[in-house]
């Protein structure tokens, strides 16, 4: 039997002392801990923390808690579970005695309905009264809230996290130079994204599912598997029509790639089959008659609600202070105007991708097209900022400075909404947490971007502008919380917040579009240089 | 020439100092970073479940604010009477000044009862978060001389301790604040500044008397290490430290002695009528004792002996003269006291023989382990008293790390029944998992093989490996959790509600007993 080593008591044990002196700076111990076992382990550790944060946030109130008769998004989701578990599939989108469409009628595509059905079945097992037909309207209880929260938590853990892991593994496989600590930092940025946490686990929605499907599709693009991409993206589209924000980027990138194939037609046909097959499977119950199909479609496009609602920091809402769009044009013409504007705004990045598709350009394209949709499309919610924000998160290592600013303003644009939901403490805490993790010691994410030839920072007054912006936003935060706006303009502060965020988003949009174009020029020039050599 | 040499030497010294300074700044930044992350989590936990301790502390705010000092320990308006030593009462008096500004109803004796508005919740929760600065300073002071790797590990283990989060920031207490004082005291002892260390310990005792379990260790250590140096100096030092301790106690208890209330204060602080075990069955030695008694009574009854079923319960206190035990002899507070002292004694002998400052933390942790195992009416929260000091010991060798890995998981798990509401279920599980993960990553990195370190990629070997026995024991925790959370409610429903609690505490007792024996062996060898 081996004899046990004599035990030492004093502080300076010989085991660790020489080892740690080799590491040099103590500061990277943090990252050394996290990453020395490989990406998957550090991902697991960070995701545990992210789940902890999510479950802590979920203890806070949800949107519309205790505010009859309409309540909020929480009630909408619960109502859908009630409808889907109690009515046959074909009646989900149809107005009837048991399904009053004016009371939170289902207005998302079928995949959302299926997801509601699955969650509804779970709720029915543990708390049947919370999804009972008609009698459960406005149901609010400890157990009901908890179960609903857990459905979001589990969909996040089971769906968003694996997709994030998939993306990180694929993305960093291509980037040989990225150090381990950068990978860990990037994972933390994706998983601790305050906007997504606040909306899904505070306000209450299931954005994690459609965003995950999109993320999976993006990872599949980086993997080079086009069929998988289109399958996943079609699923994302059938979960939330808002996923269409990303469509131009996917379309242009894959078109650009297909055109470079030897057999472009065959490639396109293959993709077309993938898309059609996915759609047919998801939409099957509604494909038996044209009426049913149109009924669902009409539910998905609520044009009667006007071009904008509330105070969202997009073009239409911001300019409506000066130009009364709703009075000047009919809804019909506004529809075409907004469509044209959106296409025009996303055109540059699409053209770039068709001309020279590249992985990095694709990520920028996602960002640009979703930003274009956010700024110019019809009926945008505050929450839709999640789409451009997701794609910015993926590029966090490329534009770290802009990323933290974007996070700040994206959060700020949702500030009035979150205040209404009584989520002030999580809002402040998560912004704080995100900032300290962004600036976590020992990790300098500030990396020279490839487009460093031109930088906004070189513009005279840019830094000054940014600082003024920031200062005003702080003042607005304080004002919003402390003072009552004048009687004449009850939404004065909301409007100011909107203008501020809008101006930042526009600036950001310009910057990323420009970067995307310089990217291709850079690539092309470097390619030429290689040929010369 | 010489001049130039001197200058360059000076310059290099200067640069070296500058470097050290910068290093230290960086470390401080990292420590603050740990604390900031923890604070964010604590803030998010504000709306979570809070136990009656929340109302207890609110009531103390009201008592100390609206009553004169002479009536603090007599007030019975609420059932949650003041039963902590005077310094804690002064601390509550201090907090109540701010509480009044926030919302006057908090400090109202009558209308404040069971007050649950946002103002009081936020005020009290944030007061705990702010008082944790004490813990931060304690950790900082304790670890500032250590090498970076160890220091960071200790900081992560203490500041991110799941036990502290569960007890202080969900259940509601001020343990972080008090343990901060303890760490501060240990840091002075380790530096050889015994007088300050002793002084701080006296202060802690006047905050919370449950810390007194380590008093014998302090007494012996200070007597030997501080006072045992020649007759004259020794005597002078003995008088000094005696005077310091007496002064602290006078500052605390003086006013009450002056008013002739010391009897009342003591009787409030030591409610021996509360029974041997706390309602939640802390995982200590007495769990075995009770189970043995039950088993014996059952088997003897089967054999035909006439065993009466005891009328008193273990948790309800001693009712009259009847014993809660059917067969085994009754346990009195005196028995437990003697047993604790007996258990500590090997460590005392060791401390007397070789009073080494580097070992103080180990001895103190051991003393608290003994107090936890054999004490009277022990709360499971008391396990924090030894898990936090053990964190300091854990970085000293691989064996210590392995032991700490086990004991901190067990002690954290034993806190689970405190948060019995389903809302906190994912939180407590995630806290434990995250803690285990951080420990595992931290220890494997700390004890990584020298050569492997340099390699950029590939499998890194570490001396830190969890043994077969420990692994299966920890797996058992998982099974216990499954049984008590899912199988028991599913098959037995509401019948025998005490079974899950008993199962958990019995199983955790095995772990804690193991830890006790391990620590004892470690101290003796």
From TrEMBL, chain A:
Keyword Membrane among UniProt keywords? yes
| PANTHER family associated with the record | DOLICHYL GLYCOSYLTRANSFERASE (PTHR12413), DOLICHYL PYROPHOSPHATE MAN9GLCNAC2 ALPHA-1,3-GLUCOSYLTRANSFERASE (PTHR12413:SF1)
Segments for region (Disordered): 1-21
Lineage, highest ranks first:
Eukaryota, Viridiplantae, Streptophyta, Embryophyta, Tracheophyta
Q: Which family does it belong to?
A: Belongs to the ALG6/ALG8 glucosyltransferase family.
A Pfam match: Alg6_Alg8
Q: What keywords sit in the KW lines?
A: Endoplasmic reticulum, Glycosyltransferase, Membrane, Transferase, Transmembrane, Transmembrane helix
Note the topology in the membrane.
Multi-pass membrane protein
Transmembrane region(s): 146-171, 183-199, 211-236, 266-286, 361-378, 385-411, 423-441, 462-483, 495-514
Task: Specify the species.
Answer: Camelina sativa
Name listed for the protein in its UniProt record: Alpha-1,3-glucosyltransferase
User: Where in the cell?
Assistant: Endoplasmic reticulum membrane
The biological pathway it contributes to is: Protein modification; protein glycosylation
Cross-referenced InterPro entries: Glyco_trans_ALG6/ALG8 (IPR004856)
Major location category of this protein:
endoplasmic reticulum
Q: What is its EC number?
A: 2.4.1.-
Top-level EC class: transferase
TrEMBL record, chain B:
Q: In which pathway does it act?
A: Protein modification; protein glycosylation
Q: In its keyword annotation, does this UniProt entry include Endoplasmic reticulum?
A: yes
Note the Pfam families from the entry. Alg6_Alg8 (PF03155)
Can you say where in the cell this protein is located? Answer: Endoplasmic reticulum membrane
* Key words of the record: Endoplasmic reticulum, Glycosyltransferase, Membrane, Transferase, Transmembrane, Transmembrane helix
EC number(s) per entry? 2.4.1.-
Per the record, membrane topology reads: Multi-pass membrane protein
* Primary location class: endoplasmic reticulum
Record field: transmembrane: 30-49, 122-140, 152-172, 199-223, 235-258, 278-297, 334-352, 359-376, 426-448, 468-487, 499-518
Keyword Transmembrane listed: yes
* Segment forming the signal sequence: none
Root EC class: transferase
Protein family (similarity comment): Belongs to the ALG6/ALG8 glucosyltransferase family.
PANTHER family reported for this sequence: DOLICHYL GLYCOSYLTRANSFERASE, DOLICHYL PYROPHOSPHATE GLC1MAN9GLCNAC2 ALPHA-1,3-GLUCOSYLTRANSFERASE-RELATED
- Protein name per Swiss-Prot or TrEMBL: Alpha-1,3-glucosyltransferase
- Source species, please? Camelina sativa
